Amino acid sequence: KVKTLMKKVYDTEDKAAAEAILKEATKVIDKTAAKGKIHKNNAARKKSALTRHVNKLAKAE
Description:
Shape: elongated
Mean pLDDT: 94
Number of helices: 3
Number of domains: 1
Number of strands: 0
Low-confidence stretches: none
Largest sheet: none
């Protein structure tokens, strides 16, 4: 689920849609880290990368 949502964020060119998917992806990543499936630093790195990508979309428009 995490990988799927990350791909959706990266594939989306629309800023508003990317922000909506980012919000969902952040929830899923946090839940996955809380369950211990991924390390908390790995989760933080994924969220940071996704946020940077969405911010780049904002600047592009």
